[in-house]
Amino acid sequence: MAVRRVVPNIQSGAAQESREFYGLLGFEQVMNHGWIMTLASPSSPAAQISFMTSDRTAPVNPDMSVEVDDVDAAYAVMRESGAEIVHPLQDEEWGVRRFFVRDPGGRVINVLGHR
């Protein structure tokens, strides 16, 4: 299993203001579903930051997203370790397969893979 990218998820009701502010640093919008918006660096596309109001299909907002090349393997490893699964593995209508797990510090991690 390999990590493809890590994205901080910031809970915010100020998406437009954040897009303008981080645009001053060179970030551009690469995704906007209304409830979550992701900005990325054009010169380094894996350098990303997301802003969300509330997760559309999960019971909590994740603190961070970790994209892996094999989300099913990541899910199996986390379950076998005894880690707390906060949101079960599922396919989402926007093209990702994901689950949420709580890290030792209490942060909720969205572990995902693109289909």
From TrEMBL:
Xref: InterPro entries: Glyas_Bleomycin-R_OHBP_Dase (IPR029068), Glyas_Fos-R_dOase_dom (IPR004360), VOC_core (IPR037523)
Stored SUPFAM superfamilies: Glyoxalase/Bleomycin resistance protein/Dihydroxybiphenyl dioxygenase (SSF54593)
Residue span, VOC domain: 2-114
A Pfam family matched in the record: Glyoxalase
Annotated PROSITE patterns: VOC
Protein name in the entry: Glyoxalase
Organism listed in the record: Peterkaempfera bronchialis
